[in-house]
Amino acid sequence: MEDRIQYLFRQYLENTCSREEMEEFFAYIRESKRDAALRDMIRKLHEAIRTNPSLLTYVDETGNLVLTEPQWNLQPATISKSSHPRRIKTILLTVLVLAALSVLWPVTDFYRHTLKQAIARPLIRKTTEWSEYKYLLLPDSTQVWLNAGSSLEFPDHFNENKREVVLSGEAYFDVKHADQIPFVIHTGKVSTTVLGTAFNIKAYPNRKNIIVAVSRGKVKVSLGDQLIATLSKGEQVKVNSWANNMAARNIAPAEVAAWQQGRMIYEDEDFEDIIADLERTYNVKVKVDNASVLNLKISTSFSREIGIEHALQILCKLTDSDLKHSTNEYIIR
Fold first, then answer.
1. pLDDT digit string, tens, across residues 309-329
2. Sequence-ordered list of residues with C-beta below 8 angstroms from that of 262, at least 6 positions apart, any chain
3. What kind of architecture, by CATH, is found in domain 262-332?
């Protein structure tokens, strides 16, 4: 559901959502358990916009998203008649929705970066639903295989100095070589830079670790402005952008994007991350009632063809848990 809310949020922010999507988006907000708190925040933000727009989130003259924290001790002020209507509209759209959804989940650095990229220049956005996979050919002839529940944003043409895209989820890239024109994939605080190579990136929202693995060539992985790893064929790095740490290991090139061949391979992965993968892969809902297993580290593998129930049975056996199946979801206890 969270992925769906994020998609609707993005559509609303860019003013491209249909009437049905807008109604669905606000229905999610209204259904929140903290609906009263959310409404109160929107009311305060509306008052803040009316009395002091200079403190709010807005798009500046160069097209960049400026994010500032709302302050509730506001001195009376007015919006001048010279204020640009488009700027005021963007303020209303951006700050109200960002603040409202912050009640539902934290606005991560990743999402802020993605929004900034999108507003700074027009981007094409390709997405996959749960249990859906897509092949994309980018403007420079770079090939991309997009895993389930993912999105990739890119311009209709790249500039002469740098090729940049924004990934949320998982994708395998076969980058078209171009001398002196680096290809950069942004995934929150982590960016991956190459000239021409083949590699896989796993960077789903709310996942603790971003994983980059190389099957051909060489890539540079940075956390913020700091270069943290240079990877060659058969090497992988797992970056925890929340804790600002990383772990590297060797990996068989055939395992770099094993999901493309229908193999699901996990090496020292959190139980809850594996469950999230299974939900996306099989388009099901899995509820974990046994909180003690969520952060257990699991190493296992299985074929996608075995199905969700068999996969969950394997995980339950590894964690000494029980599996129940109700009408709409699987339950692990």
1. 999 999 999 999 999 998 889
2. 303, 304, 305
3. 3-Layer(bab) Sandwich (3.55)
